[in-house]
């Protein structure tokens, strides 16, 4: 994403942003996404700021989807193990 002066961010900045996004919990990403949407809906931001907010919102939505997909996979694995009679990790019988 370009910086306000029109130049692309340094590669190290982009990597740090990716790492920070990957470190967010589902709840943190969801809450920040809600705040981004509220700022966009409120209007009043410059075009550049609106674009940056939109891009951040897309990244946050993707991060939330990763969490939800991972949870769905874990549930499917637990259900599969339960059906096959295997012990589900973390459960006692």
From TrEMBL:
Protein species of origin: Cellulomonas chengniuliangii
Catalytic activity, as annotated: Exonucleolytic cleavage in either 5'- to 3'- or 3'- to 5'-direction to yield nucleoside 5'-phosphates
Annotated protein name in UniProt: Exodeoxyribonuclease 7 small subunit
Entry similarity comment: Belongs to the XseB family.
Principal subcellular localisation of the protein: cytoplasm
Protein EC: 3.1.11.6
Gene Ontology MF: a single term: exodeoxyribonuclease VII activity
Enzyme type, top EC level: hydrolase
Assembly, per entry: Heterooligomer composed of large and small subunits.
Subcellular location: Cytoplasm
Pfam families named in the record: Exonuc_VII_S
SUPFAM superfamilies associated with the record: XseB-like
Upper lineage: Bacteria, Bacillati, Actinomycetota, Actinomycetes, Micrococcales
Cytoplasm is among the record's keywords: yes
Entry-linked PANTHER family: EXODEOXYRIBONUCLEASE 7 SMALL SUBUNIT (PTHR34137)
Keywords noted in UniProt: Cytoplasm, Exonuclease, Hydrolase, Nuclease
Keyword Disulfide bond: no
Function: Bidirectionally degrades single-stranded DNA into large acid-insoluble oligonucleotides, which are then degraded further into small acid-soluble oligonucleotides.
